[in-house]
Design a protein that fits this description.
The chain has twelve helices and eleven strands. It is α/β, with parallel strands linked by helices and 297 residues long. The chain folds into three domains: 80 residues, Winged helix-like DNA-binding domain superfamily/Winged helix DNA-binding domain (Arc Repressor Mutant, subunit A), CATH 1.10.10.10; 89 residues, D-Maltodextrin-Binding Protein, domain 2 (3-Layer(aba) Sandwich), CATH 3.40.190; 104 residues, 3-Layer(aba) Sandwich (D-Maltodextrin-Binding Protein, domain 2). Strands 3, 4, 5, 6, 7, 8, 9, 10 and 11 form a nine-stranded mixed β-sheet that branches. The chain has a two-stranded antiparallel ribbon with strand order 1-2.
Length: 297
């Protein structure tokens, strides 16, 4: 048996696109060439890797087992080509959950490009669950997340600490009283603005607050950090967010930091990678990772 990387590339393209026609369009081949390559692959494997349902091709059990291995091999080959091609700019694809992607990474990318004008970074932003899924599917070179990783088979390392603060706006119904601070009972009875389940920001807020408050009397769920910030400005409730995320509105006087009897609130931010992805020096420099993290030795 002599499988080729081209066969695996075509197999992965079909798995993503669902038809040979769409796969061919994605990788620049004719439908007939894609079908021929698939037939050859299944012939060499001695069994089909797709179920044929009308015009759709759906991965069967064998195909689902093969796909992550195929993508890991393709990612490894792409890394080799990128590493040794002198004429190709270094380009990394980084997945980041919302607070990291919106407030921490842009400055890091700018600093990297000041020192290496050929380095390019594509930043893919989603919630923690979405970033982890992108790492699993080898769609990004590394992921940066605000909550812990719950998926097996991935390598996780501590990245940096992030301070959380509680904020409110002057339009809050109890703004005058909140300027003097709030006790635990007031915090427990407040309306809290939270992200959706699966968000690292939501998980971090719950982990920081619930051990002290033992529950929220009222929660208003909003679909993003910016929505929560603006909701707090509008007086809809209290928000527990990264200091990085609210620094701009605090400086403008649109949000105020709430004094509470709670201890300093912090969370751990994490870096996560697929074992099939290597982390070279330029990407390590971008993330500020120690030399002993994500080594391939």
């Amino acid at each position: 048996m002599h499988l080729s990387l081209r066969q695996l590339e075509i197999f992965a393209a079909i798995a993503d696109a669902g038809t040979t026609t769409a796969a061919g369009a994605a990788i620049g081949l004719s439908q007939s060439a894609v079908s021929a390559a698939l037939n050859e692959l299944e012939g060499q494997l001695g069994q089909p890797v797709f179920d044929r349902i009308g015009r759709r091709l759906l991965l069967n059990g064998q195909g689902r087992a093969l796909l992550p291995e195929a993508k890991a091999l393709l990612a490894g080959m792409a890394d080799i080509e990128r590493r040794f091609s002198a004429n190709t700019p270094v380009r990394w694809r980084v997945g980041a959950s919302t607070t990291i992607g919106n407030y921490l990474m842009p400055a890091r990318i700018a600093t990297l490009q000041e020192h290496n004008r050929h380095a390019q970074v594509d930043l893919v932003i989603g919630n923690t669950r979405e970033v982890v899924q992108s790492v699993q599917r080898l769609e990004v070179d590394v992921g940066l997340i605000e909550g812990p990783n719950h998926e097996p088979g991935l390598e996780v390392a501590q990245w940096q600490r992030d301070e959380l603060i509680i904020v409110f706006g002057d339009r809050h119904p109890h703004a005058a009283a909140l300027r003097a601070g709030a006790d635990l009972q007031q915090l427990r009875q407040a309306c809290w603005l939270l992200r959706e389940p699966g968000s690292g920001t939501r998980e971090a807020a719950e982990q920081a607050l619930l051990p002290h408050l033992h529950g929220f009397d009222a929660v208003l769920q909003l679909g993003g950090t910016e929505a929560i910030k603006q909701g707090a400005v509008a007086g809809l409730g209290l928000a527990c967010l990264s200091r990085h995320a609210v620094a701009d509105l605090i400086e403008l006087g649109k949000l105020r930091e709430l004094a509470t009897p709670l201890p300093r609130l912090q969370r751990q931010l994490w870096a996560v990678r697929h074992p099939g992805k290597r982390v070279p020096d330029s990407l390590r420099q971008l993330l500020g990772l120690p030399v002993d993290v994500f080594t391939d030795d």
